Amino acid sequence: MPASLARPGYTGRFAPSPTGPLHAGSLVAALASWLDARAHGGHWLVRIEDVDGPRCPPGADQVILAQLARCGLLPDQTPLWQSQRSTRYQAALERLQALGWAYGCACSRKEIAEALLAQGGAPERHGELVYPGTCRAGAQGRAPRAWRLRSSTGPQDESHVQITWQDRRLGSQTQDLTLAVGDFVLRRADGLWAYQLAVVVDDAEQGISDVVRGEDLADNTPRQIRLQQLLALPTPRYLHTPLVLGANGEKLSKQNGAAALQLDDPVLALRSAATSLGLPPDLPGTSSGEWLASAVQAWRLLVA
Length: 304
Ligand code: GLU
Hints:
By secondary structure, this protein is α/β, with parallel strands linked by helices. It has helices spanning about 25-40, 60-70, 85-100, 110-120, 175-180, 195-205, 220-230, 265-275, 290-304; strands at about 10-15, 45-50, 80, 100-105, 125, 130, 145-150, 150-155, 155-160, 160-165, 170-175, 185, 210-215, 235-240.
């Protein structure tokens, strides 16, 4: 391995939400994170992100693990299931509450929409409303339903939080968190943990040094960096991989009906994922093991 790429302490991960089997797009993220870990002489972990239980059909986690194994992508440790980690997320929430960053919110979605309308508009991103701050100073005697993170610079200060970060592929990125996202949810009204909190707690606890995942998640990174800052956790390096688009030009996702991966010939599936990552289409190898070994060499050249 070129000495410049070996990085002691490198730990990467693939963190699928088991809402269905892997599709061509999720294999790209799995492969990229595996290749990057191997290219740096690091460890590669798998975390099953099943916090949103109702959206995860029983057995989908095992299907995903079997699909990864079929492709030769084997984690270096037993996978972690987020559904078993509530006490860790609760501890992080309590810390944010104690520091004055997390507050209880009693508003329903309808009330939020109405308050935004009364303010003259309804800022929204990806179907999520930017919270108007109704309960920031207290839920006015109403029982809190959800817990939110204060997105301004201080519990008593309303200045905007700007997050700037360096993505290994996308370059320098900046987001005005207060304006673009607002006070985001940590624990939902239905009691489920929000992805943002769970991912930050787990990345830190698993010692993740490098997050490699699809570009559709890039927009979540500033929220995660903010939580890392407030919980005094390290910020990993980030690399967001190109999205795989379906025939209709939309990103492949389980929500828009992407087909489960065809794995009769795993090398074929890996080759197609590799092409989306900008690797040569004709890497040598007839078994997944052989092919992965040549892909690691090619990935080294790509990211060196
Ligand atoms: N669980 C997320 C998903 O499947 C990915 C989380 C992450 O990589 O940070 O979209």
